[in-house]
Design brief:
Radius of gyration: 24 Å
CATH superfamily of the largest domain: Dihydrodipicolinate Reductase, domain 2
Number of helices: 14
Helix content: 25-40%
Number of domains: 3
Oligomer: single chain
Low-confidence stretches: none
Bound molecules: NADP nicotinamide-adenine-dinucleotide phosphate
Number of strands: 17
CATH topology of the largest domain: Dihydrodipicolinate Reductase, domain 2
Length: 429
C-alpha cells in the first residue's frame, strides 16, 4: 500500500464534523477502496470547543490560511464558507503552495472558479468541489466523467432544499409563504437570514458551476437571471395544480443557437414530469445529453451526512490519483459563456391577475396579449361574490419573453387590473 494521504480540515461545523466522522468511522473501508489510508493531520475552526468528535492527535490551527501552508498535509479541505475572506485566503494559499483542495463552498467556486482552476492547473493539483452542488448527489462527477461522451443541451435542477421544502409545504398544507418560512427557520431548514436561499442566489451559485461543467464554458455567475420564491402565493399553487402543473424553484442552463441561458426562477413543471415529484428538502438534477438522453439524479442536497459524503468522495479521488480538469476541460479551453438575454427566451407563461369583475375586462386583457403577439391557451377565474376584484389566471403558448413583458405592461396599465400581474414561466419537462 502507498503512504497515507494526509488531510487538513478548515471548518468544523456541520460539514466539517460530518467529514471527520466519516473519515474516522469508515477508515478501513476507505483505505481498502483507495489503496491507501486517509489520515487527518490538522484541523482549524474559530473556537476550540467540544464538537462531539475526537480531535486529539490532530494539530490545531487558529488561522486557516496558515494551516493551508504549514500543516503536514497533502490536501486542504475548506469547509468554512463564503466567497471572500478567510475561506478564499485559505484556498488561495493552499493552491499557491501546490496542495490539493477540496471544498463545499459554492459561493467561492461560482465567483472565483476560473482563477482558482487556473492556479490549480498551473500547480498540477486538484480543486474538487462535489459537495458545492446538490450536496450528496454526485452530479459533478456525473457530468465531468460519467457523461464525458455527450454533447449536453440542457441541465436543470431543484438546487435548493429550503425552497423546495417551503413550496412543498405550502402546497400540502395550503399555507402562505411567510408562515411556512418561519417554520422552516424553526426546524433548522432555513437560515436566520434566509435571503440567499429564498431569493435564488444559492441556486444560482450552483447553476453557474453546473453550466460551466456541462457546456465547457467559463463560470459566469453574473450572467444568471435570478428570481426567488417570495412572490409565490398559495393561490398560484392551487391554480398550478388545477392546470396540471407543480411549482418548483428550478435552475436551468440551456445551450441555444443564440447563446447560453442561465436562469433561476419559480417554474411550473407538468405533474407528469419526474422532477415534479421531488419534494421536501430533496434536490434533483436532470441532464439532457445527446447520447444518454435524459438522466435524473435525486437525493439530499444538504445536511451533515450527504454533504460530507461528497467531500470524502473528492478526497478519495485524490488518494486514488484521479485528476480531472476542474470544470471538465483544461482552463484555456473553457469558452466565454455568451449569455442569451432573458428577453430572447422563448417559453410558455402563466399569469395571475386581480381583475375587477365587470363586463369587457377579459376582452381588454385578450387585446393586450394580441397586440403584443402573445397567444393564450387557457383562462381560469375564481368566482366573485359581488363585483369585487377576482383572481384570474391565464396560460400562453410559446412566446418571446420580451413580447410577454410588453403584454404584462399593457395589462398593468388597464383600469380594471387591481394589482401588477404575477408571471411564472412554464417548462415542458
Ligand atoms: N450545511 C450544509 O448542508 C451544506 C451543504 C452544501 C454545502 N455546504 C457548504 O459547506 C461549507 C460549510 O458549511 P457548514 O454548514 O458546515 O457551515 P457551519 O456549520 O457554519 O461551519 C462553519 C465552520 O467554519 C468555521 N469558521 C468560521 N470562520 C472561521 C475562521 N475565520 N477561521 C476558521 N474557521 C472558521 C466555524 O468555526 P466555529 O465552529 O468555531 O464557529 C465552523 O466550524 C459552506 O461553504 C457551505 O456553503 C454546506
Amino acid at each position: 500500500m502507498s503512504d497515507p494521504l494526509k488531510v487538513a480540515i478548515a471548518g468544523l461545523g456541520t460539514v466539517g464534523v460530518g467529514t471527520v466522522k466519516i473519515l474516522q468511522q469508515h477508515a478501513d473501508v476507505i483505505e481498502n477502496r483507495c489503496g491507501r489510508a486517509i489520515k487527518i493531520t490538522a484541523v482549524c475552526a474559530r473556537s476550540n470547543k467540544d464538537r462531539g468528535v475526537d480531535l486529539s492527535g490532530y494539530e490545531w490551527f487558529d488561522d486557516a490560511a496558515q494551516m493551508a501552508v504549514k500543516a503536514d498535509a497533502d490536501v486542504i479541505v475548506e469547509l468554512i464558507g463564503g466567497s471572500e475572506g478567510i475561506a478564499k485566503d485559505a484556498v488561495d494559499a493552499a493552491l499557491a503552495a501546490g496542495r490539493h483542495v477540496v471544498t463545499a463552498n459554492k459561493a467561492l467556486v461560482a465567483h472565483h472558479g476560473q482563477a482558482l482552476a487556473t492556479m490549480a492547473e498551473s500547480k498540477g493539483v486538484s480543486l474538487n468541489y462535489e459537495a458545492a452542488v446538490a450536496g450528496g448527489i454526485p452530479v459533478i462527477k456525473t457530468l465531468r466523467e460519467g457523461l464525458a461522451g455527450n454533447a449536453m443541451t440542457r441541465v436543470q435542477g431543484i438546487l435548493n432544499g429550503t425552497c423546495n421544502y417551503i413550496l412543498t409545504t405550502m402546497r400540502e398544507e395550503g399555507r402562505d409563504f411567510e408562515e411556512v418560512l418561519k417554520d422552516a427557520q424553526d426546524f433548522g431548514y432555513a437560515e436566520a437570514d434566509p435571503s440567499f436561499d429564498i431569493d435564488g442566489v444559492d441556486a444560482a451559485h450552483k447553476l453557474a458551476i453546473l453550466a460551466s461543467v456541462a457546456f465547457g464554458v467559463q463560470v459566469n455567475f453574473d450572467a444568471v437571471h435570478i428570481e426567488g420564491i417570495r412572490h409565490i402565493s398559495s393561490t398560484d399553487i392551487e391554480f398550478a395544480e388545477e392546470l396540471g402543473y407543480r411549482i418548483k424553484l428550478l435552475g436551468i442552463a440551456a445551450m441555444t443557437e443564440h447563446g447560453l441561458e442561465q436562469r433561476v426562477h419559480p417554474t411550473m413543471v407538468p405533474l407528469s414530469a419526474p422532477i415534479a415529484s421531488v419534494e421536501g428538502v430533496f434536490n434533483a438534477v436532470v441532464t439532457d445529453g445527446d447520447a444518454v438522453d435524459t438522466l435524473m439524479q435525486e437525493g439530499r442536497g444538504a445536511g451533515e451526512g450527504p454533504t460530507a459524503s461528497a467531500v470524502v468522495a473528492d478526497i478519495c479521488d485524490i488518494a486514488r490519483g484521479i485528476m480531472v480538469p476542474t470544470f471538465g476541460v483544461p482552463v484555456a479551453n473553457l469558452k466565454p459563456s455568451q449569455p442569451r438575454p432573458m428577453g430572447q427566451h422563448v417559453g410558455a407563461y402563466y399569469v395571475r391577475m386581480m381583475l375587477v369583475d365587470e363586463p369587457g375586462v377579459f376582452a381588454d386583457v385578450a387585446a393586450a396579449l394580441r397586440d403584443n403577439n402573445v397567444s393564450m391557451v387557457s383562462m381560469l377565474q375564481q368566482t366573485s361574490e359581488s363585483g369585487d376584484a377576482v383572481p384570474v389566471v391565464l396560460t400562453t403558448h410559446e412566446t418571446k419573453e420580451s413580447d410577454m413583458n410588453s403584454a404584462l405592461k399593457a395589462i398593468t396599465a388597464l383600469d380594471t387590473v387591481v394589482e401588477a400581474p404575477h408571471m411564472i414561466r412554464i417548462e415542458s419537462a
